[in-house]
Specification:
The protein is an alpha+beta fold and about 500 residues long. It folds into three domains: about 110 residues, no CATH class; about 180 residues, Jelly Rolls, CATH 2.60.120; about 190 residues, Jelly Rolls (Sandwich). It has seven helices and 30 strands. The strands form six sheets. Strands 2-1-30-23-27-25 form a six-stranded mixed β-sheet, with no helix packed on it. The protein has a six-stranded antiparallel β-sheet with strand order 3-4-7-13-9-11, with no helix packed on it. It has a six-stranded mixed β-sheet with strand order 10-12-8-15-16-17, covered by helices on one side.
C-alpha cells in the first residue's frame, strides 16, 4: 500500500506542468448582447439582449402651450442618427450671422425611409381655431447641390384629430438662407384641431433622391392675427439657441446617451460620455454593410447590433457599469468592439472609478470580418475588481475615425486560487515559503497558513495543490525539484498519509 501511495505522489508531482497551472474559469455570470430593437433583431444564443429605444420625447412648456418633439423610426440601420444638434462652426458659418442662431440648432432624424421622421405635438391650442403653422427645415451639412434634394413632407399626423393642408420643404445646403423662415427652407400648413392638441409629422417624400432624412430648425404658430408661439430648436450648447424673439426648446445632444437595464441579479448601464454626443446610442447595422457573403450567419446576429458613439474627441467614449458585483472579487470581463461599417479605429478599454485591473486595446475595423463570435481580434479581456458593488470600465478611441463601440460583454467570476497562501493573486515561491514554514502543522484557517485543500493540515497534499496552480510567470523562477527533493517530498506525503491513517 505504501508503495502505491509513493508512486501516486511521484506521479502527481511529475505530471504537474506550467500548462496546467492556469486558473479555472466557470460559466459567465452575465452575457449581454447590445443593439437596436428591430422587429427582426436576433440575439446571439447564450446572451441576454439589451437595447434602448432612441425615441425619447422632449417636452417644454411656454405659457399656455406645451411643445413635444420626438422621432419616429423603426431603427433600420440609422437608429441613433437622430436627436438635437448644434452646428458650432463649419458650414453653418456661410449663413449670415443675424440668422445663424436659428439655423445652427435643430432636431433631426436621419432615416431616409418614407413614413419615418419627426413628430411635433402642440398642446394648449383653442379647439377648432384655424392656425398657420410654419416649419423651417435647413441642414448646413445636407447635399451641396440641388440635384440631390431630400424633400420633407409636413402634414397633419395620421390618426390624430388634426386636419388641414400639407407642405413640402426641400432640404438643401445651398444657397444658404437669407432670412428666418426663408421660403426656400420653410413651409406653411393651414391646420386646426378639435381637441386643442395639434399633431403634425414630417417625413421624407416618396421618390426623394436625397438621404438626409427630416430636419426641424424651428416653427411658428399664428392664430390668424398674431404669432402666438415662435420656437427655436437645438442642442443645449453654450452657443445654442438664441434667435431674438424666439423661445428655445433644447434637448440632450444625441438620443440614447445613457441606458440602464436589470439583467438577472445585475444592473447594467451603458453611457456615452464626453463633449460630442450628437450621434450616440443603439445601432443595428443593415446586413448589406456586414459583408453578408463573408460573415458567418452565427456572427451576424451578434455583430450587427451595438451601442456606440461616433465622437473622435479625446476623452469621449463609452462607460459600462455593472452593479451588483461582489466587492474585491476578481472578474474576467470580455468586451467585444466591432463595427462592420467602419474603417480602422483603435479603442482602449480601461477600469475607471473604484475599479482596478488591466487595460486592453482592440482595433475596430470592417475587414477582415470576424470569423466567429469569439474571434480574438474583436474583443479585449480585462481582469478587474471593484472596491464596492459597482464595476466600471471606460472605452475611448485612440486612433481612427470611428468613435467607440460595444457589441456585447461577458462577466465571469475568477475563483480564488488554491495555493495562493498570501492572497496576492499569484501562486509562486512566496507561497512555497509559507508552506515550508507550516508543513506538519494543524491550522485553524486555510490559505494563509499553507493549507491549500482546507483539511486544516499543512502537508504534502497542499504542496501538490500549490504546484498544480503555480502561476506561469513564476514557474521559470522556481527550479524543478531535483530527484532527491522529489523523494523527500514523497516521503513527507507518505509520512502524513500514514499518520492520518492511524488517527
Amino acid at each position: 500500500m505504501k508503495h502505491r501511495v509513493l508512486f501516486l505522489a511521484l506521479a502527481c508531482i511529475a505530471s504537474c506542468s506550467v500548462a496546467n497551472c492556469r486558473r479555472s474559469i466557470g460559466a459567465p455570470l452575465l452575457a449581454v448582447d447590445f443593439g437596436g430593437q428591430l422587429p427582426n433583431s436576433i440575439i446571439q444564443p447564450g446572451f441576454d439582449g439589451m437595447w434602448g429605444t432612441a425615441d425619447p420625447v422632449t417636452a417644454s412648456t411656454f405659457g399656455p402651450y406645451t411643445v413635444e418633439l420626438s422621432a419616429n423610426n423603426t431603427q433600420t440601420g440609422v437608429s441613433a442618427n437622430r436627436g438635437f444638434i448644434n452646428k458650432i462652426a463649419g458650414r453653418i458659418d456661410d449663413t449670415d450671422a443675424s440668422i445663424r442662431d436659428f439655423y445652427r440648432g435643430y432636431y433631426y432624424n436621419r432615416s431616409p425611409v418614407n413614413g419615418e421622421g419627426i413628430s411635433l405635438r402642440l398642446s394648449g391650442l383653442t379647439p377648432n381655431q384655424p392656425y398657420t403653422l410654419t416649419v423651417a427645415s435647413f441642414d448646413p451639412d445636407a447635399s451641396a447641390n440641388v440635384a440631390a434634394i431630400t424633400v420633407i413632407d409636413w402634414s397633419p399626423a395620421t390618426g390624430s384629430d388634426t386636419t388641414g393642408t400639407s407642405a413640402a420643404v426641400n432640404l438643401i445646403r445651398t444657397p444658404v438662407p437669407t432670412s428666418v423662415f426663408d421660403p426656400a427652407y420653410s413651409g406653411a400648413l393651414q391646420v386646426s384641431t378639435s381637441t386643442g392638441v395639434l399633431d403634425v409629422f414630417g417625413t421624407v417624400k416618396v421618390g426623394s433622391v436625397g438621404v438626409r432624412g427630416a430636419v426641424l430648425n424651428g416653427f411658428k404658430l399664428n392664430d390668424g392675427t398674431n404669432d402666438v408661439l415662435s420656437v427655436d430648436l437645438g442642442e443645449g450648447a453654450p452657443a445654442g439657441n438664441g434667435q431674438p424673439g424666439f423661445v428655445g426648446v433644447v434637448g440632450d445632444p444625441g438620443l440614447v446617451v445613457s441606458h440602464t437595464e436589470i439583467v438577472g441579479a445585475y444592473t447594467v448601464t451603458v453611457e456615452a460620455v464626453g463633449q460630442y454626443l450628437a450621434e450616440a446610442g443603439f445601432y443595428n447595422t443593415p446586413m448589406r454593410e456586414q459583408g453578408s457573403d463573408v460573415l458567418t450567419p452565427p456572427a451576424h446576429a451578434f455583430y450587427r447590433d451595438y451601442f456606440g458613439t461616433n465622437s473622435t474627441i479625446a476623452g469621449d467614449g463609452l462607460k459600462l457599469t455593472i452593479d451588483g458585483v461582489t466587492p474585491e472579487q476578481e472578474y474576467d470581463l470580455k468586451i467585444w468592439s466591432h463595427d462592420p461599417a467602419t474603417a480602422a479605429t483603435e479603442i482602449r478599454w480601461s477600469p475607471t472609478d473604484n475599479t482596478i485591473g488591466n487595460s486592453g486595446d482592440v482595433t475596430m475595423v470592417r475587414t477582415p470580418v470576424p470569423s466567429d463570435v469569439d474571434d480574438p481580434s474583436k474583443y479585449v479581456l480585462l481582469r478587474v475588481k471593484a472596491s464596492d458593488a459597482s464595476l466600471d470600465v471606460f472605452g475611448g478611441f485612440l486612433t481612427g475615425p470611428g468613435g467607440t463601440r460595444i457589441n456585447g460583454f461577458e462577466l465571469t467570476a475568477v475563483p480564488a486560487i488554491a495555493g495562493d497562501f498570501n492572497n496576492d493573486g499569484a501562486v509562486n515561491g512566496d507561497d512555497l515559503a509559507i508552506w515550508k514554514e507550516h508543513v506538519g502543522a494543524s491550522v485553524d484557517a486555510a490559505a494563509a497558513d499553507g493549507d491549500a485543500d482546507g483539511d486544516q493540515d499543512v502537508d504534502g497534499a497542499d504542496f501538490l495543490v500549490w504546484q498544480r496552480n503555480l502561476t506561469s510567470g513564476a514557474a521559470a523562477a522556481i527550479p524543478e525539484p531535483a530527484a532527491g527533493s522529489l523523494l523527500a517530498l514523497a516521503s513527507s506525503i507518505l509520512y502524513f498519509a500514514r499518520k492520518r491513517s492511524k488517527q
